[in-house]
Each structure stands twice: as C-alpha cells, then as structure tokens.
Amino acid sequence: MPSEVLGRSAEAELVGSVLGGTEPAALLLDGEAGIGKTTVLLSAIDRARELGFTVLFARAAVTESALGYAALADLLAGIEPAALDFLPAPQRRALDRILLRAPDDGAGTDPRAVAAALLAVITRLSERTPVLVALDDAQWLDTSSVHAIAFAARRLSGPVKVIGTVRTGIGEDQALWLQLSRPEALQRIRLGPLSVGALHAVLSHRLRRSFSRPTMMRIHEVSGGNPFYAIEFARGPADNLKSGALPPTLAELVRQRIDGFAGDVREALLAVSCLGTPTADLVGRALGVDADDVFTRLADAEDRGIIGVDGDRVRFSHPLLAHGVYSTAAPAARREMHCRESCSCWGCSRCRTAAHGAPRTFSGRRSNRSRTIRRCASKYWCHWRSPNSISAGSRSPRRGLRRRLPLPIGWTARRCAASRWP
Fold first, then answer.
1. CB contact burial 11-35 (16+ within 10 A = b; e otherwise)
2. Which one, 125, 152, 160, 357, has least CB within 10 Å?
C-alpha cells in the first residue's frame, strides 16, 4: 500500500472489495475535514486504473455548487465527442449543451434527457472496461448534477463502481441521495483519527524529516490524529511544537498560513480558488496580467506547499486550502473576483475605461459607458457562460450572470463590470 495511505489498511481493504466483482457497488467515505478522505479516494483511483478501469472523476467545490451541471461536466470532460455519437438526438443535444459544445439556441435543457444520457454513456463504457465514478467532496455537488447522478446510480448494471467522499459536521447528511438498485451494494465507512505511529509515517513522508517521540505525542495530542491538521502544525515554527500553540480551528490555521503573503499573492490565490479548473491564462485574465506574471506571483505560495503547478494548470495542494482562501476573503472581494472571471470584458481596455469613466471619453455620459460595457460583455460572454445559464435558456450576459453568481438581488452584468477596478 502506498505510504500516503499508511494507517488506512481497513479502508484500503474495503476499496479493494468494492472494486472487485462484476456487479454495481458503491462506497462512501465519511469524515471530518482534513481526515484523509481525498487521499484514500485518490489511492482508489490509482488502484482502479492499474486494474484497467475507466475513471470518471469530479471534485466538487463550494464556489461551484450553484452552477448547473458543473460536476457532471467534469465527469464527462475526458470523453471525446465522437464517443457520444451513439446517443439519441435529444440526449446528445442535452450533453452537448451542458458540456458547452453546442450553441445556445434559447431552449432549456431537459434534466431527464441529461440523466438518461449519463446512464447510457456509463453503460456503454462498462461494456468495454469496468467503470469507476469518483466523486470528491460530494457535499458540494450542484443540485442538477446530483439529480442526474442519482438517476443513473439507481439504474446501473454491470461492473460499475461509485466511490465518493462526504464531509461530516456541516449539517444534515449530504449523501442520502445516492442509492443503488440493491441497498446492500452501498457501503459507508467513517474515517477516524490516525494513530501516533501512522501519523509519524505520514509526516515523515510529506515533510521529509523525522520527529522525536515526545514531539510526535504533542502533535498527535493537539491535532487529534487529523493528518492535515498535523501536517500544517508541523510546518509551522518550532516554537509552536514546544508550546502546542495550535489554532483552535482548521480555518484559523489556514488563515495564518495565508496572512503571511503579500496582497497581490492573496489576490492571485483568491482567483485560483474561484475557478473550477484554474489555469495561468484564466487567472491572468482576471488579474489583468499575463501568465508569466501569474507564475511569479504564485512562486512563494508554491514554495510553501500551498499550490502546485502542472504545466499551465494551477491547483491547491489540498481542497481545504482552496476553501480556506475563499472563505477568509471578504464577501465584496469574492463577488468582484467572480465578476472578473465571469466577464472576460474585464480584460478589454475599452470596457475598463468605460467602467472608470475616463474624463475625455465617457465623463458624464452614462449611456455611452453602459453601451460599451454591454457590447464587450456580449462579445466575450460565450467564453465564460455557465451550463446553468444554458439550461435556463439564458442568452444574455446579464441574465446568465444573475443566475450564475451569488450576487445581491438586482446586480447585473453591467453593474458588475462597472464596479471599481483595483
């Protein structure tokens, strides 16, 4: 078993039993934030690929929980368009809409057609290889994706497996919707704290250094055996290890790590946390800089293990860090960043000039300013339009943005674009 999942032998054995067999089966991994659910899930994905599975993976995020079919689009993102040619026309059209492969004709997307298409795709894939549907942080799945996945799960047949992670402690059970045709085919396991020995193995592997037993006992005591908590604590100053000065919550621990960065770095981190699939180019558009400047801003965060860079892709090293960056930002800052990322007209100098009202060009002429912003938003909106706006039959930037973002009532694309550019 990989060293990353040391101390989880029972979970690894259960994963193996779920992946075996030729009938549908599901496994839900419950636990508090940072307990290691994602690590076990990623290990299960690696194991499934070694066994020849086709893996459909989606990681939900609180920032995308209001976007229609966001998680479902991630699940199907790796499937080539030609592989969907077997679908009946209504189902193919529905998937093309949620995958943003079809122009918006103003018609709504039929949720039943989407769900039936998902089931048909999974069934067709399972005729060739076993299929694993992996869902990380299922508590943040958008409602439309939940309905489609639940519809398909109840009708699965053949070697199809579903493994998901669900965070506990945030209210009512967030995974009651997942049911298979045979109730006994669904298993749930709650991940508990790691032992001192297992925690020492994890820290040694992640931080590339060893700790004395008294130090490990203190780390285990103050972290409660939570591996993420322990790793972040062990990264801190040595004085913290001696005094046991651990912040009372994970959110406070993440906040302390972020506060040490300069303002432009925190702004870049917020931009990354607001994107589902962040790239340097997308972050740069939101910040008004090029990709090289984005990498320069994030170099310190990468050195400290906050983020990782893979080519043009930028990602947080742990979902909790992304959530921490997003939740600790001021609501106004989150709204503005969403607006920047949702309207690429922020990258248009004409629109930014219009928003500021340059003295010689737009001063005192609100109609010209509004007209310029609307024209730019309409031109670029197709690059940022969400599946939710398409399913709702929205063809205008203003309507789509109002449905997509958690903005105050009455906000529109024009008002969003006209807000102050920092």
1. bbebbeebbeeeebbbbbbbbbbbb
2. 357
Q: What is the pLDDT of residues 394-412, one digit of tens each?
A: 333 334 433 333 333 333 3
Tokens of 216: 């490990």
Residues 73, 98 contacting (CB under 8 angstroms): yes
Q: Tokens 């008004």 correspond to what residue?
A: 288
Which amino acid appears at position 72 of this protein? L
Task: Map tokens 């979970």 to a residue.
Answer: 11
- Residues in the chain, how many? 422
For 265, other C-beta atoms within 10 Å of its C-beta total 18
Asked if residue 122 lies in contact with residue 131, where contact means CB atoms within 8 angstroms, the answer is yes
56 SS3 class: strand
CB 41 within 8 A of CB 29: yes
Would you give the end-to-end CA distance of the chain in angstroms?
A: 49
CA distance 239 to 248: 17
List strand residue ranges (DSSP E) for 307-370, in order: 307-310, 313-316
3-state helix, strand, coil in the chain (%, to 5): 55, 10, 35
Tokens representing residue 58 in the block: 């989606």
Distance CA 64, CA 404 (A): 9
Beta pairing, strands 54-59 & 160-167: unpaired
